[in-house]
């Protein structure tokens, strides 16, 4: 059993609209606090969208995600998993970016997550745009490349944007493969769809052995079958999970910068995260929630519900 200090505040003790909104009503523990030595899974905000190339706003995602996460309760209604009793979880606050500099923000974020890694904490991050994943991987994959299960409507494998820009939310995983942070033969990308500029990203995936599951195949096979393959590709080795909210059809998640129609519904979106059970998840993120395009918070509530499903499986992995 975990330390009671790390249990979330119950809605039976304090109304969900009251109190300071931390992720899932967990205690806030800064990296400098003594209690940090006991944290096993850290929920972190990455309020930065310096890589955005379309509709802005994911820098405001962590704040709305925290607010909506007060509705998360202690037990998974489908699986019965009680993650807060399996692992000591805490809100580690936000990594502070530099909104005027992409390069400095990448450096700051890598340094922050390097400290998290050194303390043996598995990070679960709320973005921010998808470029946030790159500095996290730079910290977590310092010793050896990771596998990755990636839910998205875009591959984010492009070489560059706008005549040579190397760092946008469409390039993080190209950089991660080039830098040796990901083992491409242990990477699967699920849900890819939409119109395209060209086939450069898909050609790169084919050339290095990344498995791409287009949305047509996802719907034809179903979530269960696709996730069997995802777990096989990840294997038992350390794996990162990256979940772009635009994986979900915009009818269910309109609050994002680059929506693509034809995606999974909200149940399927939870289902794929639930089917990560058994994967050795050393870190995960949920990115691209843009509150200006869904001020009522439905997208953010779906996002934190997905995060809870990932957290359940991260807690299982931490105890494996």
The protein's oligomeric status is: single chain
End-to-end Cα distance: 14 Å
Are there runs of 5+ residues with pLDDT below 50, and where? none
Major sheet: arrangement of strands: 2-1-3-8-7-4-5-6
What's the overall geometry?
globular
Percent of residues in beta strands?
A: 15-25%
Instruction: Tell me the number of strands.
Output: 8
Helicity level, as a percent range?
25-40%
Order of helices and strands: EHHEHEHEHEHEHHEHEH
Total number of domains: 1
**Regarding CATH, which class?**
Alpha Beta
Topology-level CATH name: Arginase, Chain A
Q: Please, how many helices?
A: 10
Mean pLDDT: 97
CATH architecture descriptor name: 3-Layer(aba) Sandwich
Helix-strand category? alpha/beta
Q: Indicate the radius of gyration in whole angstroms.
A: 18 Å
What does this structure look like?
With 320 residues, the chain is α/β, with parallel strands linked by helices. It has one domain (4-144, 160-181, 242-319): 3-Layer(aba) Sandwich (Arginase, Chain A). The protein is built from ten helices and eight strands. It has helices at residues 61-68, 83-86, 102-118, 133-140, 172-178, 200-208, 215-221, 223-234, 266-274, 298-319, and strands at residues 41-46, 89-94, 122-127, 146-151, 182-192, 211-214, 239-244, 281-287. The protein has an eight-stranded parallel sheet, with helices on both faces. The longest helix has 22 residues, at 298-319. It starts with 40 loop residues before the first strand and ends with a helix.
């Amino acid at each position: 059993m975990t330390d009671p200090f790390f249990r979330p505040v119950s809605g039976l003790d304090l109304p969900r609209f009251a109190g300071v909104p931390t992720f899932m009503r967990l205690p806030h523990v800064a990296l400098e606090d003594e209690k940090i030595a006991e944290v096993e899974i850290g929920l972190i905000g990455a309020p930065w969208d310096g890589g955005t190339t379309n509709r802005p706003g994911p820098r405001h995602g962590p704040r709305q995600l925290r607010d909506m996460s007060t509705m998360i309760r202690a037990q998974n209604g489908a699986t019965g998993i009680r993650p807060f009793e399996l692992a000591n979880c805490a809100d580690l606050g936000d990594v502070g970016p530099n909104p005027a500099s992409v390069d400095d923000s990448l450096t700051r974020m890598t340094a922050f997550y390097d400290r998290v890694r050194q303390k043996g904490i598995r990070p679960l991050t709320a973005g921010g745009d998808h470029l946030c994943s790159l500095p996290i991987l730079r910290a977590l994959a310092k010793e050896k490349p990771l596998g990755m299960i990636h839910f998205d409507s875009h591959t984010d494998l492009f070489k560059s944007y706008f005549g040579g820009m190397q760092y946008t939310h469409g390039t993080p995983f190209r950089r991660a493969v080039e830098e040796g942070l990901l083992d491409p033969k242990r990477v699967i990308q699920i849900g890819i769809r939409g119109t395209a500029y060209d086939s450069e990203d898909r050609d790169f995936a084919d050339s290095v052995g990344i498995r791409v599951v287009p949305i047509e195949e996802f719907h034809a096979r179903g979530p269960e079958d696709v996730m069997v393959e995802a777990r096989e590709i990840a294997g038992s080795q350390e794996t990162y999970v990256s979940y772009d909210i635009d994986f979900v059809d915009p009818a269910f998640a309109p609050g994002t910068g680059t929506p693509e129609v034809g995606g999974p519904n909200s149940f399927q979106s939870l289902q794929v995260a639930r089917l990560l059970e058994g994967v050795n998840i050393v870190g995960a993120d949920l990115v691209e929630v843009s509150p200006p395009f869904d001020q009522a918070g439905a997208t953010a509530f779906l996002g934190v519900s997905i995060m809870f499903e990932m957290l359940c499986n991260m807690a299982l992995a931490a105890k494996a």
